Amino acid sequence: MARLGFREWLAVGRVIAGGTLTRTERAGGACDRFENELAGFAGCNHALAVSSGTAALIAALQACGVGPGDEVLVPAYTWMASAGAVLQVGAVPVLVEVDETLTLDAKDFAAKITPRSRAVIPVHMLNRPCDMDRILPIAQEHGLKVIEDACQAVGIRYNGRVLGTLGDIGTFSFNQHKNMTCGEGGAVLTSNATLIDRARNAHDMGLGFRQANTLDTNEIFLGNNFRISEIQGAILRVQLRKLQGRINRMLRRVTMMADMLERNGYPIAKPHGNGPTASLVLTFDAEGEAIQFAERRGARRLFDSSKHVYTEWEPILTRKMAHPGVTPWAWAGNPNGPGPESCPKTIDLLKRSCAINSMPDVPMPVVRYLARKLAA
């Protein structure tokens, strides 16, 4: 997880001393500056800071006009919020298998598109890019919005481009366990002026009126309150300046560990895209091998990661919403929804796969020592 230090402490102190903690009190504060800097880093026209990765997904879905009666294709291996956000806007998630990279299977994605399909959420899990070269043309052919979930891949590149900027709109998370953090937070990224206007309203029901930065008043609609504070904005500005260095350390460590493990005969799961990867996954031939390997320090079996596995999404599998009158599945003409057997290929891969911590904050000599023990 990303760490906070003295520079973040100083940045927060300056905000507190200034006396303005709410971002809407004045323009040009820490949040505004962070958004401009994040858009510059990512290479897109607009970035919007929000309260969490889940809030970013909800705002992105609302920006794209997804709602009751619609279907959104979502991988079966992702944090539950990727599918939960779809239900929160009244649509239903359609589960798609993952491929051997542990990301959305483009072939299964194409096979599960229906006349009700409105969008797809490729999730770049574990800093591993989806096969965007195949996903984007399929989505375009069928008129689907591409909402990238890069919450677990902040700052990671795919063929030279920052994940979250390849589709129509993208999302980041700044949860404590992500590549950069302010405890809880997120962001929406896009180069589409209409989508960012709608996302701004989705994240604050009054922002379009308060700051008059919604260019098209037709995009002013009832939103929610997903704002972050100036304290979070100040922390994120410092974290953003540290991000590329952190990713570079991840890349070096993963490259070294993957080389050592591969030379010792371990089955490295290859990622999509060109160049080095910031993620290391082993996929064994048998589940027992993965269970045994997961006992080693620094390794974990992916099937054991609770709410990242769709079979653990109890409220979704039981179709339990806050009120019985909220029935997205019925609205979409799909009253049964997903079940435990929806994606058997995904379950098989997760049972046989282990992820290894890239340890970016651990000195390289220690990482080499731990890698030798892993590869033994």
UniProtKB/TrEMBL annotation:
GO MF annotation, one: pyridoxal phosphate binding
GO BP annotation list: polysaccharide biosynthetic process
Keyword Transferase: yes
InterPro entries documented for this protein: DegT/StrS_aminotransferase, PyrdxlP-dep_Trfase, PyrdxlP-dep_Trfase_major, PyrdxlP-dep_Trfase_small
Broadest EC class assigned to this enzyme: transferase
Highest taxon of source: Bacteria
Classification via Gene3D superfamilies: Aspartate Aminotransferase, domain 1 (3.90.1150.10), Type I PLP-dependent aspartate aminotransferase-like (Major domain) (3.40.640.10)
UniProt keyword terms in alphabetical order: Aminotransferase, Pyridoxal phosphate, Transferase
E.C. number(s) listed in UniProt: 2.6.1.87
UniProt similarity note: Belongs to the DegT/DnrJ/EryC1 family.
Protein name as it appears in the record: UDP-4-amino-4-deoxy-L-arabinose--oxoglutarate aminotransferase
Protein's organism: Falsiruegeria litorea R37
